[in-house]
Amino acid sequence: MPQFRRFGTRLLLLIAGVVAAAQVADYLLVVRANRRNAIDRIHENLAKGAALFSRRVDARLLELSGRAALMSDDYSIRQLFLKDQPDPATVRSALRSYSVRMGVPFMTLISTEGARIGDTGGPLPEAALRPFEDLVQTAAAADDPKATAFARLPSTSEDGKVFALLVVPIYAPKPEIVAWIGLALPIDHRFAEELKSDAQVEVTFYYGTGETMVPVESTLPGAAGPRSAADLAESAVKTANVSGEPYVTAYRPLLPLVTHGRAAIALQRSLGAELAPSLPLERFLLVLLIASLVAAALVAAVLARNMSRPLRSLADHTRVIAGGDYLTRLEVTRADEIGQLATAFNQMSEGLAERDRVRDLLDKNVSPEVAAQLMRDGGALGGEEREVTVLFVDLRSFTRLSESLPPRDVLHLLNRYFDRMSSIVETQHGIVDKYIGDAIMAIFGAPVARDDHADCAIRAALGMPSALAGLNTELATEGRQTLSFGIGINTSRIIAGNIGSSRRLNYSVVGDGVNVAARLQDLTRMSQFRADILVSASTLTSAKRRYRVRDLGAAPVRGRDEPVGIFAVDGEE
After folding, report:
1. Domain boundary at 277, 293, 309, which?
2. Three-state SS across 326-365?
3. What is the CATH number of the domain that holds 533?
4. Cβ(220)–Cβ(205) under 8 Å?
5. Disulfide-capable partner of 215 in 40, 224, 424, 435 (CB 3.0 to 4.6 Å)?
6. Contacts for 169-174 with beta carbons within 8 Å, 24 or more apart?
7. Domain residues for 8?
8. Nearest to residue 568, comparing CAs of 555, 560, 556, 558?
């Protein structure tokens, strides 16, 4: 059947989905763990590279500082300051000699007043010498007269490069400072390559004066692009794409910077390169995922086929039960859960058959309203006070009639009579409380409350004579004696509920009003009233419609001290 094929497909998808979810989760967890471990290793390398950069710059500057301090004792340097005006060519020659020995591209000699005495690179713009002058002021104010900083010297032979600057004093003798030596250590491509080799990271030096900083040296030629100044303003670790490949990058600003703008170092490592050793494991897991999905699909197909057949039988049987056939049973051939379900279906069929038998008997013995209340309340003893209308209808001279008929004929006659009268009661929303010999006791307004219970009772009483006339026509045709009756109706507050014992009960009403209705039915036998339907004054008061009635005054009722106002009802206006 199509619905079971769909069920099999859904089951297959469910099983495959569960397996796939587990495998995908496993795969994603491994990939995530590999990525996290790779990033952690990269962070370690980047931190190592940053520390190594700082140590290398500090060590080189410390070495240069020591060498520069030795210049104070050098004979050629002392000779420079024996003259009031040192010869520029002699100064340049001496500084060039020292710059070669120290391995620095630029040196300058500055007086204690901050004026340039000479340098290795020839005349420089005033702005290019300003960083050394600023460092001289800083060093002169320090306890240890020495200062370092980063700067960019754009007009030297190393145009556009970032330098680490150093300023140390020349003593003649100590502690008298006669001049200052300024040195420029280039942070160049060679420096970047050495750092890359030692720390296993890519190195890029940035410089900029605006919102964008451009690379001035990089071990990634052509791949290191401009960066926002905000990215490089503070130390941070970020992931950025370089030529379409993700690189984890640690930014460190170069401080202090004594020239205008910003400078920073970017230490980078490719995330793809770090993940490369773990890619075989990820590929293996991916193949395992695909294989698991295929295996799950095959297993699901077999399971779906084995389950769909018995489930189709169960579904067919539900339609059999829905059609009212509770006798057909499923054949149980399995001991698993489906077999237990089939057994439960058979037990349910037996229970439904028994329920229908009970319901059929209940409907025939009590009214549907009472049956509904019994099902709702569970048959608890007790009742509630409410206003209802009680109707009694009793055959006249039936005792003499029953003496002339066999008991079976009497029973048959009563059933024909009760069938017609009960139908009218139920049509007018009443219930037959009980059959008392040849009398009927009916209740209107209980167990289902109605505002028009008095009208329902009166309309039922007005409909009964025509129904009796039809029955009498049939009896006359059969050659039998016709019937007559009297009806009494009374409205009052009574107790309605289940009456009896814990083993046997009956829904009924009790109270003085019930007795009054029975006595009014008895009064219909009195010839002076000439009425087949008598109602009490309380019933007419409760009625919402208007009827043709005759006021018969107050009549004594057996069992009551006070008379009851009664009316004969002839019809509805």
Report:
1. 293
2. CCCCCCCCCCCHHHHHHHHHHHHHHHHHHHHHHHHHHHHH
3. 3.30.70.1230
4. no
5. 224
6. 169/72, 169/139, 169/145, 170/71, 170/72, 170/77, 170/81, 171/72, 172/72, 172/78, 172/81, 173/72, 174/72
7. 1-293
8. 555
| Contact of 246 with 276, CB cutoff 8 Å | no
- Cis ω for the linkage preceding 173 (within 30 of 0): yes
Tell me how many degrees the CA angle 568-571-573 measures, rounded to the nearest 5.
120
For residues 308 and 328, give the distance between their C-alpha atoms in angstroms, rounded to a whole number: 21
- Sequential DSSP letters for 187-203: E-HHHHHHHHHHHTSEE
Looking at residue 568, its pLDDT comes to 94
Please report the pLDDT score of residue 381 as a whole number: 44
Is 286 in contact with 20 (CB distance < 8 Å)?
Answer: no
List of the chain residues with pLDDT < 70: 1-16, 72-73, 75-76, 78-85, 122-128, 154-160, 221-224, 229, 231-235, 282, 300-309, 311, 315, 326, 330-332, 334-336, 354-382, 502-503
State which H helix or E strand residue 319 sits in.
helix 279-322
10 Å CB burial of residue 473 (0-12, 13-18, 19+) is exposed
Q: Please give the structure tokens belonging to residue 516.
A: 């009054």
Q: Global pTM?
A: 0.47
- Dihedral angle, C-alpha 283, 285, 288, 292, nearest 10 °: -130
Nearest to 512 by CA among 558, 446, 566, 459: 558
Number of domains in the chain: 2
Terminal CA-to-CA distance of the chain, rounded, Å?
64
CA distance 24 to 35: 16
Largest CA distance in the chain: 170
Q: Which H or E run contains 486? A: strand 485-500
Residue 302 lies in a domain: no
Tally Cβ neighbours within 10 Å of residue 200. 14
Burial of 13 (0-12, 13-18, 19+ CB in 10 A): middle
* 5 and 142 part of one domain: yes
Q: Are strands 212-218 and 227-228 parallel, antiparallel or unpaired?
A: antiparallel
pLDDT, residue 158, reads: 46
How far apart are alpha carbons 259 and 160 in whole angstroms? 12
The residue among 270, 293, 316 that closes a domain is 293
* Whole-angstrom distance, CA of residue 224 vs CA of residue 192: 13
Peptide bond into 256 cis (omega under 30): yes
Residue with tokens 């020495």: 146
Cα 224 to Cα 1, 31, 253, 268, 422, distances in angstroms: 65, 28, 17, 10, 102
- Strand 533-536 to strand 485-500: parallel, antiparallel, or no bridges (unpaired)? parallel
Residue whose token pair is 């019937």: 483
Residue 144 within a domain: yes
Crossing angle for the helix pair 2-70 and 88-102, to the nearest 10 degrees: 130
| Per-residue exposure over 403-435, b if at least 16 CB sit within 10 Å of its own CB, e if not | eeeeeeebeebbeebeeebbebbbebbbbbbee
Render the burial of 249-272: b for 16+ CB within 10 Å, e for the rest.
bbbbbbeebbbeebbbbbbbbbbe
